[in-house]
Amino acid sequence: MKYCQDIQPELSAYLDGELTPPQRAEVEAHLASCPRCREEVAELKTLAAGVAALPKLEPAPQFLAEVRRKIARGDKPEPKTWRDYLFRPVWLKVPLEAAALIVIAALVQRLQEPMPANGVSNARMARVKNELRSAAAGDKSAGEIRRRAFADNGSVSGLTIAPPLAATEVAAVAQDLGIDPSRLDAEVIIPAKDLHDVQSRAEQLAAKCNGRVIAVSSSKAAAGHLFFVELPREYAASFKLELLQSSASVVGTEGGSRDKGGTTAGATASSADAIGFGAGVLTGNRETNTVFSGAAALALTNEAKARALATIVLEIMVVTPTN
Amino acid sequence: MERVIQPDAENAASDHELLDRCRAGDEKAFDDLVLRHQQRAVNVAFQVLRDREDAMEVAQDAFVRIYRNVNEFRGECGFTTWLHQIVLNLARNRHRWWKRRGRHAGVSLDSAVETTDGEVPRQIAAEADTPDVQTVKAEFVELLGRRIGELPRRFREVLVLRHVESMSYQQIATALDCSIGTVKSRIARAREALRERMKEER
Question: Is the CB of residue A77 less than 8 Å away from at least one CB of chain B?
Fold first, then answer.
């Protein structure tokens, strides 16, 4: 027996005839016994009919002639050649040039750091590894990592695993893959010996929340492995990372620095030796900042109302622990 | 499956035949394509942008782009899907352009008339409605027109493609270059957002 909250997310697709027969049967069984959901379907139907009934705009009689005139005149929907860029008005040219400078600066920075085959810089990898190693050696407890992560009023800037420089590097990699860097919204660093395991979990996770794994590096030999998962933004708010070991539960907080009951500063290296030890941070949005330690499993802690609008991209970095 | 409206379906060449002829230099074939699809292009642009002049411009520019790129289009998707992609892309650029200039605030079916055309009421001919649609009250549709104009553009896009263009989730996914799952969740969120807004003031 399904409850309203299970059924309601499906009502929209039900209305559009886009559910599988079993899903459809489930929804219909529920609707038969639930007047509230029936009412919701009726409301959605009215909305749909309303959108279909919106006044339409008819093309002007001279539409074709206008198109022909633009073609003859050589109008471009948007400038394409370097000349167009060169002779743009100042208000557009100046920001463009500023942007170009930044790009050049970033390129220079990237060139100075040799890149392994999978596009993750050695410098970054070394930094992450150091962090993982020192954490594994007991230099920092999970609690310490968490404190540092939230030292800056809930932001993650204090965590050296996610230094600002890395963001530009990752953005560059993302761009190479055709991903808009502005959508890179969260970072997950996962220690694991088995890349395929993490990848398949990421794929399951993506499938669960209507997302997709965008690109996976083909290089298996490299120490780190970077790929991206695209998700509807509302899911980011409800993401958590859970530890594989039940004894070492999530070191997590919701709502920035609010501590949720002192979970497990003791999730230390020794408890996670089967898969390696690591620390990382997942920031879905301002509402969820979860720091985890120990061997991590991605898990979706469900629902969360649609609050924001865009899809986001999670950057998932898999680090193979050094032996 | 591509939904193609063909005014005289029996005699008409398919879109792909017309495109082939365009590639071979047949200018008349391009005109036929424009005439066949101008209404679709104009209306989709209008529903997304909620501004008549911008919609005309964008639809015209879309056909200009099609004319220029007809040799690059290899028919990976239907012509209308390609047209939708181009219209939506140009509409996005136009939307951003205005947004940067601060005109975006309050742009909607009705309010835009007051801000750009003085007090002239906007009169737009409605197409013949289906019986289902006739049951929707006029003032409800009018309010809906205003409310949909306040939604984020990406929500309007999916609602328009779904309800105005009657496209399947698969077709919408192709036109927007995203996954079916994204389409599904975005449509659900768009409806929820619209419903919330409709409740605010009736």
Answer: yes
